[in-house]
Amino acid sequence: MKRARKILLFENPRLTRWLELLLAITVIPLSGCVVGPKYHPPVAQAPPAYKELGDWKPAEPNDQSLGGTWWTIFQDPQLDALELQVNVSNQNLKAAEAQFRQARAVLRYYRADYYPTVTAGPSATRTRVSANSPTTTLLAGATYNDFVLPFDFSYQADVWGRVRRTVESYREQAQASAADLATVNLSMHADLALDYFQARSLDAEEQLLNSTVKDYEQALELNESRFQGGIASEVDVEQAKTQLQTTRAEAIDVGVARAQYEHAVAILIGKPPAEFSLPPLPLTAPPPHIPVSVPSELLERRPDIAAAERRVASANAQIGVAKTAYYPLINLGAAGGFESGAITTLINGPSGLWSVGLSAVGTVFDVGRRRSLNDQARAAYDYQVAAYRENVLAGFQQVEDNLAAVRILENEAKVQDEAVVAAQNSLNLSVIRYKGGVTSYLEVITAQSAALADEVTAVNILGRRMANTVLLIQALGGGWDRSSLPARPECCGKLVSDNAH
User: Fold this and answer.
1) How confident is the model at residue 205 (pLDDT cuts 50, 70, 90)?
2) What whole-number distance in Å separates Cα of residue 182 and Cα of residue 477?
3) Is 389 in a helix, a strand, or coil?
4) pLDDT by residue (tens digit) across 265-304?
5) For residue 182, which of 303, 300, 100, 308 has the smallest C-alpha distance?
6) Is pLDDT of 495 > 90?
7) When comparing pLDDT for 17 and 194, which is higher?
8) What string of H, E and C letters represents the secondary structure of 12-24?
9) Beta strand spans in 19-122 (E)
10) 412-436 burial by CB neighbour count: b if 16+ within 10 A, else e?
């Protein structure tokens, strides 16, 4: 049997030549040309410095880095515990991770075109030929077996780089999907921090209002005592009561928005609102300083910009795919196997069979279809370039917006603190004047309203400062880096934890 195989495979000169041709065609893609333009990242002009940075000291290499777990910069254990649950339970993040796995699977599908396809279709039949067949054959009336073990080999030589360009395009798409996953990851963590700080800001406002209610209750008691003593009028009592009840209503009303933010946090960590409770924790500390690098680094730090750039690269590869339509397709087909009437001799050398064929198919006339395909690919590339540059501009705008907000709100907070002190002094003087009988209680009420309004404004400014600090971190990329993109997305695992940390 071994001797027969040797004769079949190595002492048949025709088959040897065909095998040499098969080997040569298989090696062609390794040295063949690749049509289409070479990719160069689109140029996006970056300013030398941020306009709204002001006197803010730019980040230096030894400054604190945002890192993947950027929320720890706020030094809030409750926030840290919530942020860690986003990676595990957030459904938007799971959906984005599934889209990345889908893009990775599509890449593996097209990458299989690098290799030939081999199929096998074994069969076994038993046939009896009619003895009265109208055609005279040597097998008339005979019964025989037919065992076949065939193998079919098909391969399209990637002479012009069609397969390589296609794989390149889908590899860039998979990398863009990985960057999209990082974008969603950053957005979900930022949304959680925003909702969390808004809830804490409302806790501080509610605490302020409840404290003011206690002060107003004492004021009401004072007015009732003065009225009973004949020093104050009933009007003063009713004005104090109105002020008290109005403030109580405001304190209750805060609970509406506070409940909504609590429910939003629950959804972000993948829990039904009924199963989650956010303990009250009034916001008191100012936001931390955020290190800001030079604008040119923003192109490497934001995952949405990286995703847009990868789609430009994918569109560039599709131009090469469209160009290959002008070149013929070279297909190689081969079939071989064994056939015998007895299964005991099926894989003997004399039972072998084979055939090899080579074909080239090219389009001669298509009424401009290939030209249209190329025009479509170039237009898609131009669209992605424009989208990329617009994404870069939007990134710079978001950084500038939040730099301005953080800087201006910091100055506003200082002025507002002075306004709170002045309003409190005014209130104290009005109370003294009222108790001394110099003025009416209306002056006290006016001073109380002004003092409360200034204190509420100060609390709201602090909440806005925390929110804009989070938005600034998000605009800067949240510590993400372009090097986090998988070089071979078809081989890597989940990226949720990688992008988060």
Assistant:
1) very high
2) 9
3) helix
4) 999 999 999 999 999 999 999 999 988 888 988 999 999 9
5) 303
6) no
7) 194
8) CHHHHHHHHHHHH
9) 117-120
10) ebeebeebbeebeebbeebbeebee
Alpha helix locations (H) across 269-326?
298-301, 303-323
Q: Which one, of 154, 152, 148, lies nearest residue 122 by Cα?
A: 148
- Of 418, 425, 190, 387, which is closest to residue 305 (Cα–Cα)? 387
Angle at 435 between CA 434 and CA 436, to 5 degrees: 90
Contact 501, 182 (CB under 8 A): no
Q: Which long-range contacts (CB under 8 A, 24 or more apart) does 489-494 make?
A: 489/100, 489/103, 489/104, 489/107, 489/171, 489/174, 489/175, 489/177, 489/178, 490/104, 490/107, 490/108, 490/111, 490/171, 490/174, 492/104, 494/97, 494/101
Cα 211 from Cα 459, distance rounded (Å): 14
Domains and CATH numbers, the chain: 37-128+166-327+369-500 (1.20.1600.10)
Residue 53: is it exposed, middle or buried by C-beta count within 10 angstroms (0-12/13-18/19+)? Answer: middle
pLDDT at 131: 82
